[in-house]
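Run folding on both entries below.
>entry_1
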Amino acid sequence: MTEGPLLIPARLRAPGEPVAAKVDAPIIHRDEARAVLGAARLVTLYDQASWSEGPVWWPREQTLVWSDIVGRRVLGWRQDGAVDVLLDATPFINGNAVLPDGALVHCEHGRRAVSRSDDTGVATPIVTAAEGSRLNAPNDIIVAADGAIWFSDPTFGLENPKQGVPGTSESGRTAICRVDTNGVARRMVDMTQPNGLAFSADGNTLYASQTPEHGEGEIAIFAFDWDGASLSNRRHFATVADGIPDGFTVDRRGWLWSSSSAGVEVFDAAGLHLAMVPTPGLCSNCAFDSDEARLFITGGPHLWMLPLG
């Protein structure tokens, strides 16, 4: 348990109803998506962040957690519509995930670390290096069914002073990393600026996006086979029509829901494009609640929600 004073959250938004977003209805390309998205309409839950990222549903608290990277806060949307500050003056936290014991883990650009927070309002680094060299700027993070932590480690947070602390890569590598349940971190596979991560529902496929900014490689979502020990069979999975696949999530059907500059692009397990959910501004990431009845979407100052049929 992290030591520190008990958290008394600062409230940014009082309880209240969401506001209908001024945006077109989902664009459906395949019949199988119609039952899920045909009646879905986007609502706005919050619009006062600086740069929203890293959404994750926190079952223990029935709260949607997300980061305001530039505003240096981790925020929580409550079921009654209130928004609280969960962590303040953060070291540019980006991705968030939930551990099996209910604690949160975070990707920190500023401290070049993966950290953990419990109920005290304090995040404590738990991983700062892999294979003898310091991490770059951990970006997105997920927790696998076996409790292992996976995160992407590009250099974006070392290059953009608005979202991190300028620095250089010690390893000279940008990779997808895994932290086993004993706390040992390894670089599992190199990618050119890896970004979003998600596992398939059965845990046998890892999806990872590659989003280089200067033409060093293909911008796309790739899939890997995971056998419990190593990643193999890297293959192209999908690209989005506009912008980049910054962050994404995979549902129990095997559909992958990816961010883009136009909204959320939906693909089936074979990479077939099923639908697009327009958002009023650029979309950065998305996450479901426990029942997959609601999709939460981050982008710019916004947190949106899409109730699903």
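>entry_2
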Amino acid sequence: MLLIPFTAAAKTGWDLCVSSNQRFLQHTDGTPFFWLGDTGWLLPTKLDRDEARNYLQTAHNNGYNVVQVQTLCGVPCVNVYGQYSNNRYEPWDMSCFDNNSMTYTYWDHMDYIISEAERHGIYIAMDCIWGGLVKSGLIDTEGAEAYGTFLAERYKKHPNIIWMIGGDIQGDIKPKVWETLAKTIKSIDSNHLMTYHPRGRYTSAKWWAGAKWIDFHMYQSGHRAYGQRMGNKDYPIPDNTEEDCWMYVDSTWAYNPVKPVVDGEPSYEDIPVGLHFPDGRRWTASDVRRYAYWDVFAGCFGHTYGHNAIMQMHKEGQSVAYSSTSKTWYEAQRDSGYTSMKYLKALILSLPYFERQPDQSIIYKGNGEKYHRIACTRGTDYLLIYNYIGGEIHIDLTRISGENKKLWLMDTRNGKLTFIGVRRNGKLTTQCPPENVLIAIDCEKRYIEENQINIIKSQKTEEKDLRE
């Protein structure tokens, strides 16, 4: 039996808001929204129209509903057609893009990408300008106001926009520029959600917990392995916690007010561990799945996946960042980490959504550290246990309702579901294979069985809508 994934657009409209418990995102009609993002950072500059359409189609087919892009990775930025993003002499005078003097501008190409993403049920999370450009002084508060006005006016009517301030940078570097940009956009476009993309090993709540313009928080768990400090003095977390992505949920929710949180940049598939060792060990599909399940089971409202080739839209014959060799972006879209994220989304959406909470007390004995940590989450009548290493686990089934519980195993690599029986309420010792999720559900409920039928019907309808 296969846990069949959701793959399509929001069928209840595009408008998003924060749930009443401040832990999740939802559509305004109350339908859950599980963020499954991809870091397609250089999509606006590296891909032409046909390539962008193919990339988005494949992303849609694999369940992705958000693509994070660098709107500006340079001042000016130049796309695949040789078009400039800014006036090279007065970079923040955007008036030349408000007329039809050019047949196809940089911003026309951005329009096309956003519209094509909408057709495929995908939100574009627009990182307005990368942090290094702000840090180097290429934009000031006056420029931020002009640029923010241009962006908000141009894209406020597109339904599939999520605003992303920051860009791999601390919020206390040029904070006035970031605040001006955020407030300017929000003053014109209050309908789309906004967040801040921080530097690795930080959460946006560190600087913007009280900011009214930020709707949900984002952290970057980063690319380093346990013990891989590399002599960096600016190192805000203890040694040997580098891969503990789950800890950022608790550290974000330590700030008030509490807001939803997501890991906007974990370790990427097929990127060198620690980034700066081009011929060293690379993160694998197993690693990126581990980050995803640890994040979501800790309380994230979704997850962002990343791949070294996809984030830079690498093509044959081009130079590649961070490694001496790389596959192409379209080959990377066939990699196991990329194609298996949809099973996490399907699992979470198959169960009561808004009551989900982390609960490590489900493992009543023997939970470990680092790779041996078993991650747990539950609702009122279901629980989920992710075991990366595999082996014997000790479960307290009384943490959920029901005198009897149905138990399943889901292989996170392929979504395969295996029914393993019914167990009476109480404490249970059982075996869990590596990279599997153990699912326990109150026998009075039929979430898994019913959702196989519902998801198949949903897919058929969505495929018909997409063809039309």
